[in-house]
Fold this sequence. Notes:
Layout: H1 3-24, H2 31-47, E1 53-58, E2 63-68, H3 75-94, H4 99-107, E3 127-132, E4 135-143, H5 148-162
Antiparallel strand pairs: 1-2, 1-4, 3-4
Helix pairs in contact: 2-5
Amino acid sequence: MTFLRLASLVVLTLCASVAQAQSAAPKELSALLASQAAAEALTSCDKLGHKISVTVLDRNGLTRAVLKHERATPHTLDSSRGKAYTIVTLGPIFKKDLQSELVAQLAANPAAAALTSVPGILLLPGAVLIKSGDEVIGSIGVGGAPSGLVDEGCAKAGVEKIASSLK
């Protein structure tokens, strides 16, 4: 084999490896998409007359976006983050995309009560995983409506707003 043919083969192999690595790289939740999801969740609850806070986290539980309605009470910031953190950290383990489903499953297991002592965990409905295909890339949590299921509905609206951009 000539040097030129060998060099061409090496270059082609490297290009294929780079392309494969890029396609296998995990998707990330951009700040722009996180902000759009948060804004939609806030708007959705506001239309229902609820003054809420929204927190969007990445797959590692790090904050990507936070919005608080100007008339939402201060504790709603903590509850929205706690819900988002709980679903992004425990949802994949228990194979649940909705906080309400996770809470229901854990309520049926008396030993799960110990999870409430883990810092950051809040076992109340009101959060949804954000996925790209089957891959978890983040979560959105809402706090402040009179029901966790209403919070969760607003969180779902946020995810639906950005769904076409997650593919």
